[in-house]
Amino acid sequence: MDDRELLAAAVALAEQCPPSMTAFSVGAIIAAPDGTVLATGYSRQHDSLDHAEEAALAQVDADLAGATIYSSLEPCGRRASRPHTCAELILASPIRRVVFAMREPATFVEATGANLLRAAGCAVVELPDLADGVRRTNAHLLG
Questions:
Q1: Which end of the chain is more exposed for a tag (fewer CB within 10 A), N or C?
Q2: How far is CA 60 from CA 11, 63, 85, in A?
Q3: What domain range is 26 assigned to?
Q4: Nearest CA to 20 among 130, 141, 118, 142?
């Protein structure tokens, strides 16, 4: 699978999120360099505070060298609910490539994840043509 297919799958995965008025619904997929899916996660998957990237990283049991994380929404760079942001969790892993569909709206916090990841040397790719699905899943928060 290529970037567009894997990101579209992450966007679709967000539809499994339990509804929330205080957090976005996000899907994440971690894939090996050949496109093999290593782990998936979505917001509130196991706990009401889970972020999608955090849930996927917690499930992976494979070598992440060369892996890419696909997230429907920009990984968070600021977070009130837990001590580590998704950007920090990604940087603590060997993952150095991040692909997302939509920048995090400033609904809850200022979006800084993509900038933090880039500043730390990660390749960050935004595919905004897939953002309609993100907006649809989060329409209750985006007005």
A1: C
A2: 19, 9, 18
A3: 3-138
A4: 141
- Which two structure tokens, joined as six digits, stand for 135? 């907006």
Q: Residue 37: give its domain's CATH number.
A: 3.40.140.10
DSSP characters for 64-124?
A: -TT-EEEEEEPPPS--SSSSS-HHHHHHTSS--EEEEEEPPPTTSS---HHHHHHHTT-EE
Please give the residue that has the higher pLDDT: either 111 or 24.
24
- Hey, which residues are catalytic here? 53
pTM, to two decimals:
0.96
Note the pLDDT tens digit of each residue in 84-109: 999 999 999 999 999 999 999 887 88
77 falls within a domain: yes
CA gap 44, 51 in Å, rounded: 6
pLDDT tens, residue by residue, 34-45:
999 999 999 999
